[in-house]
Each structure stands twice: as structure tokens, then as C-alpha cells.
Amino acid sequence: MLILLAPMEGLLDHMLRDVLTRVGGVDRCVSEFIRVTDQLLPDRVFRRIVPELMNGGRTPAGTPVRAQLLGSDPACLADNAAARRARTGAARRARRPIRPGSRRQRRAAVHGCRPHR
After folding, report:
1. What is the pLDDT of residues 3-37, one digit of tens each?
2. What is the DSSP string of 14-72?
């Protein structure tokens, strides 16, 4: 049987995920909601809610943690997920801001999700 540690707003933060996964018995964790509106979120938003992303998406005990996005615009949700995935997939590469007129900025504009300013 697979046991998932589900979020509770205001209670299950990264510190409690750490404690509970050190105790053991948890196979995966899900973060609190990360609210997505109409723009690509900066890295600091993801790091604040899911600091485990800086550790390869795992708690110190090694349990995988997945970010949970909440929003009403499917294209913007997909853009934020893809942008986050691309940034974590390029491990330890320098973070580049979205430049006006760049491919990332044009892609975001096509899908209706504004780049973060």
C-alpha cells in the first residue's frame, strides 16, 4: 500500500513534512497549494512553499515531494509547471530572468500567462 502525506493549509508545511518523513512510513508528500493566476511565478514562490525543490524534490529523509498548483487557467498552470520543470531539469544551472521578446516570453504570451516582472 502506498501512503501519501497530503497537505493541510497552515499546518503541513516543510518542517512537519520533514519530521513525519523522518519517522517513516510515508511514501510521497504533496505540498500546500501554490496559487497561479495569470503570470509565470518566480522561483522564490516555489522555494518558499516547497523548499525541498532545492534538494531534488525530496525531504531530508529522501521522501519525494510534489508541488500542487491551484488556478483556473489551464494554460497558465501548464506554463508554470513546464517552466518549473525546465528549471529543475537543468540542475544547478544559473537562473535566467525572462527577457522581453525572448522565446519564453513569446510562449507565455501565446498561452495567456504573463511573465513575472
Report:
1. 999 887 778 889 999 999 999 999 999 999 999 98
2. HHHHHHHHHH----EEEEEEEE--SBPPPHHHHHHH-GGGGGTTB-TT--BEEEEEE-S
Instruction: Mark residue 51 as left, alpha or beta (left: phi above 0; alpha: psi -120 to 50; beta: remaining).
Output: alpha
- For 12, 15, 52, the CA distances from 8, given in Å and listed in that order, are 5, 13, 17
* pTM value > 0.90: no
CA distances from 116 to 46, 54, 73 (A): 13, 20, 16
